């Protein structure tokens, strides 16, 4: 099947934004897209695993676990060092994979995806805090709304690819 990534710049930014909300969703979505739309641009590169069906499944399972784990009171803040590092790396992986699949320089996609992930991490953290405080809605419900946004955005990106 021919690769149908239409605009890698905006797709890398979008995937990075998703990584800022839910870190494992960006590589899950990217791997899902790339496993259905194989690219010669990724063949024989360190990113070739992103086209593998088993990698796509593993990322999807990690994303589902993250959806559940986000609602637990013991889950650290997304802006804590380990969490924000994971989100940056996740966005960078997704962006690099999309860019490389289209025959572009992977490092540009990594910078775009990782940067968008950092911005989205802080923006979504403070927006969630303000929403919980301002509405008095239970935090896990706001987290569920974030999950729905991630799934909806991911479905839109997968459809566009």
From TrEMBL:
Describe the location of the DUF4126 domain by residue ranges.
12-152
Q: Which UniProt keywords apply?
A: Membrane, Transmembrane, Transmembrane helix
- Pfam families in alphabetical order: DUF4126
User: Can you tell which superkingdom this protein's organism belongs to?
Assistant: Bacteria
Q: Which InterPro entries match?
A: DUF4126 (IPR025196)
Segments spanning the bilayer are 106-127
> What is the protein named?
DUF4126 domain-containing protein
Its ancestry begins with:
Bacteria, Pseudomonadati, Bacteroidota, Sphingobacteriia, Sphingobacteriales
